[in-house]
Amino acid sequence: LVDEEFDALEGFFNILEYGILVLLENVETYQLHLQRFLECKTEEFDFDMDGEKTPICYKEINTALRQWILPMFDKRMKALIYKPLCELRDLLVGPKNLIKKRLHKLLDYEVIEGKSKLSYEEQAVANAYKTINTLLLNELPRFNGLALQMIWSMLGTFSCLHRDLAADMEQLFQSFAQQLPHSSCHPKEFLEWVENAVLEGVRKLEILCQSVEETLNAPVVQPVSPSFQRRLKHLTDKHGSGKIFQVTNTVVGTRDFDLNLTKGDLVAIISETDTRGDKRRWLVDAGGKKGYVPSSKLIRYHQATEDPPPSPFLPVPGNMTGFRRHSCIPDPNVLHVTSQPLFQGVVEV
């Protein structure tokens, strides 16, 4: 059965329900962000700027905001908006259940509606449907009107609360404004100063990030173990310095004749292809063990031929002049190996 009057009332009720739930969700999210802001006690940090007016004013302003103004604003929000919204949401349950019950009774009523004579049970079903339908037609418009009025009232209250908050913050800032630099500047000049200050801060931050990145990507100098020196000499004597490569990442064999190697191990290249001509697998000598290693995890071993500059902090013993250091840097040229290496450089990834 089509009842246009009831369908219009039910449709408006569903719109109100959706609006109330969305508004309540937004208010909860708003309060969550406000609480997170209040937890950031930036005024308690030591700026190492004792005696300067700007950080002192900032601490005073932020303390007043976090301890008095914003907590009072949050308390009023909960009392005047959040709590009434929760109560209004709970009030939706009754009409919603009654609308569902009417639908169930309507299905039963449609079966018997065309009959000329009804039994006692069928008459009871018809009376139940008509009673619920009449109740909803009389009461649902009043409920919808009051719910809509409450929503508009809470939205107006929300605006008033923000107006009061802005007034409190303006009064707070005016008490400190005369002590701050650029307080007498024209608004246009002040905005230009702020823009230039922000751009300068961004430039310094980019320089700092670049410096940190260069520091992190710099080779890490590590002492060379005696076993490393022995393997280097053995492979160099057997294959020549031009065939010496270093493992850049740990290698775990997955096929027959593959080797398991750790990062930094030295190997000598025997063949740059496997038996099937695959150039991605190289045959290497790992100082006694021979097998295949992915070429992507090998890099040519580079050993510097010049002495490093002396440290400005540590004295250099006289018997250290014969030592060298070497690093893992790709170089297509054939390099010469010194007889007494002291350091190796490993690039941390």
UniProtKB/TrEMBL annotation:
Keywords: SH3 domain. The keyword Ribonucleoprotein does not apply. The keyword Phosphoprotein does not apply. Residues 240-303 form the SH3 domain. Gene3D superfamilies: Arfaptin homology (AH) domain/BAR domain, SH3 Domains. SUPFAM superfamilies: BAR/IMD domain-like, SH3-domain. It holds the Pfam family SH3_2. PANTHER family: NUCLEAR FUSION PROTEIN FUS2, RHO GUANINE NUCLEOTIDE EXCHANGE FACTOR 37. This is SH3 domain-containing protein. It comes from Ameca splendens.
